[in-house]
């Protein structure tokens, strides 16, 4: 039986760890050749690629740093160089904008530099990655933006971060309208608290923090990277061909 994404090529930004790595692994299991980007930790990216290959999948690492002008152009040049036989024509079928940074700073203490960095990485980079990637993305392709429950729930301690994800959701909505004529679907996936290395310092080994995070979700537990990755896997597949312009809540029912 053919796998859902057999013959497809995918790009997952920030795919060397956490949610991005789980997404890369899921898309590879479904048959896609996955390019996963990393900023500095080449060893983590190599390990992620090796694990996918050991499991019978196809993957390659792409070095890309986001947050400065020209980052999208550099990404696509690096993608073309790294893809090799996986994408000899430079084309692909799935783009997952997952790379992002978080800042827990309230309005009173957030600096202008911190604000600019958040929007440069979380909003400007995905915008121009897509802009410059549209000639590479095949018709009937999939664009999936990783948003956050912080765009829907009031979190004053992360006001700028939530604002970046709200902007990303608006980007999703408009892209879905613009690209519908090419049969390209565009959706956001909005996780809540997820047990990744980014949250490890305050979450892991802290029963009180874990209990608090679990209590936020109606399903009563902390999210896992695979919880988000499996939603992305669905959206990337043909089963989701009639879903576009949506923000898919992946918080386990936070704020209900």
From TrEMBL:
Domain of life: Bacteria
InterPro entries to which the protein is assigned, alphabetical: NAD(P)-bd_dom_sf, Sc_DH/Rdtase_CS, SDR_fam
Pfam families, per the entry: adh_short_C2 (PF13561)
Assigned keywords, A-Z: Oxidoreductase
Keyword Transmembrane: no
Keyword hit for Ubl conjugation: no
Assigned protein family: Belongs to the short-chain dehydrogenases/reductases (SDR) family.
Protein name per UniProt: SDR family oxidoreductase
SUPFAM superfamilies noted in UniProt: NAD(P)-binding Rossmann-fold domains
